[in-house]
Design brief:
Its EC number is 4.2.1.46. This is dTDP-glucose 4,6-dehydratase. Keywords: Lyase, NAD. It catalyses: dTDP-alpha-D-glucose = dTDP-4-dehydro-6-deoxy-alpha-D-glucose + H2O. By secondary structure, the protein is an alpha/beta fold. It has a domain at about 5-185 and about 225-250 and about 290-310: 3-Layer(aba) Sandwich (Rossmann fold). It has twelve helices and twelve strands. The chain has helices at about 10-25, 65-75, 90-95, 95-115, 155-175, 195-205, 225-240, 255-270, 300-305, 315-325, 330-335, 335-345, and strands spanning about 5, 30-35, 55-60, 80, 125-130, 180-185, 185, 210-215, 220-225, 245, 250-255, 280-285. Strands 3-2-1-4-5-6-10 form a seven-stranded parallel β-sheet, with helices on both faces. It has a three-stranded mixed β-sheet with strand order 7-9-11. Strands 8-12 form a two-stranded parallel ribbon. Strand 5 (about 125-130), helix 5 and strand 6 form a beta-alpha-beta unit. The chain starts with a strand and ends with a helix. Bound molecules: nicotinamide-adenine-dinucleotide. The site of nicotinamide-adenine-dinucleotide has 31 residues, from helix 1, helix 4, strand 5 and strand 7.
């Protein structure tokens, strides 16, 4: 039996990647390695936790010794690396935590893979999951391609850029077989409610203000998380060794327009008069180093591997809202305790 180790599988995107692999590849042993930080939640995987090819290991990628022992014991053929500190605002208040997990943690995984695969790279692959934020910001025109120079502006994006460089350096220096995907903003079920879309859904349900940075003109490209999981599957299995692939939804929205669209859908689903939720919109002080616009050119993955998003934004948003409305307990659980304390200091 082949073994694939997925890091960060209890988080938002990782849980969808783990589910995709567990269900699609019953003959492959899937190990979900996750430290279960505030963002990790095994509830995200309740439906597949009893599958015989699914295994969970609680471990911290910053712990070099523990990671090496896990690699030596389980001898994974493939690694899909999603574990990260992922929230830009948190990176502004605690950059070092981002360096530890995103940079040191990645290097620990690379070292462990290098050590157990040394001189036998046949059928081996390290897939590093990264973000479009490493490219910095765009003006009103243009797109990020795989050739765009790195220009990160937040401690989060700087730590992800650094981890991308380490992955490439290990390929160049040691011949480590790798692929990297740089994806735009994801949304969908299991999304932690500190991020814009689930935060607004949660606040509309609870009749709380909808905080929008600056003038709301910041523009992001949005992709339904299951389409990202499918892209990762495709690149992991069929991507060219050593290559990077941009993944995006061809779906740009200014924050203010996106929140208004969300308000309209929520009003309809909650049986409120359209326009009710929009009244909750509150503009808040902009975050430092905020990038104006991200937009991904996803033509390479489309042309080379045939990937394209399977749901429109309208469908994806509707599915996402329905999921949050049907899983209020999940939302209540993650918005209590420590998260609540953090949240109260932010807004
Ligand atoms: P998330 O914050 O929801 O999940 C991160 C997971 O990593 C959690 O389960 C957490 O417990 C785990 N983790 C954190 N530190 C760890 C450590 N030291 N050891 C082991 N596990 C640890 O993040 P996400 O939004 O699902 O993002 C997953 C990956 O995808 C990240 O690498 C992120 O940079 C990248 N990405 C995210 C987006 C997005 O829109 N969310 C877009 C592009 C790329």
């Amino acid at each position: 039996m082949k073994t694939i180790l997925i890091t960060g599988g209890a988080g938002f995107i990782g849980s969808h990647v783990v589910r995709e692999f567990v269900l699609k590849y019953p003959e492959i042993k899937i190990i979900n390695l996750d430290a279960l930080t505030y963002a990790g939640n095994l509830e995200n995987l309740k439906d597949i936790e009893n599958h015989s090819n699914y295994h969970f290991i609680k471990a911290d990628i910053v712990n070099e010794k523990q990671i090496l022992e896990i690699f030596e014991e389980h001898l994974p053929d493939g690694v899909i690396h999603l574990a990260a500190e992922s929230h830009v605002d948190r990176s502004i208040t605690n950059p070092l935590e981002f360096v530890m997990t995103n940079v040191i943690g990645t290097v620990n995984l690379l070292n462990a893979a290098n050590k157990i695969w040394k001189n036998n790279f046949d059928g081996k692959r390290f897939h590093h999951v990264s973000t479009d934020e490493v490219f910095g910001t765009l003006g009103e025109e243009g797109f990020f391609t795989e050739e765009t120079s790195y220009d990160p502006h937040s401690p989060y994006s700087a730590s992800k850029a650094s981890s991308d460089h380490f992955v490439r350096a290990y390929a160049d220096t040691y011949g480590l077989p790798m692929v990297i995907t740089n994806c735009s903003n994801n949304y969908g079920p299991n999304h932690f409610p500190e991020k814009l879309i689930p935060l607004c859904i949660h606040n509309i349900i609870n009749n709380k203000p909808l905080p929008i940075y600056g003038d709301g003109k910041f523009t992001r490209d949005w992709l339904f998380v299951i389409d990202h999981a499918k892209a990762i599957d495709l690149v992991f299995h069929e991507g060219k060794n050593g290559d990077c692939y941009n993944v995006g939804g061809f779906n740009e929205w200014q924050n203010i327009d996106l929140v208004k669209e969300l308000c309209t859908q929520m009003d309809e689903k909650l049986g409120k008069e359209v326009g009710t939720s929009e009244q909750l919109i509150t503009f808040v002080k902009d975050r430092p180093g905020h990038d104006l616009r991200y937009a991904i050119d996803a033509n390479k993955i489309n042309k080379e591997l045939g990937w394209k998003p399977t749901v429109t934004f309208e469908q994806g948003l509707s599915k996402t809202i329905d999921w949050f409305l049907e899983n209020k307990e999940w939302l209540d659980n993650v918005t209590s305790g420590n998260y609540q304390k953090y949240y109260e200091t932010q807004y």
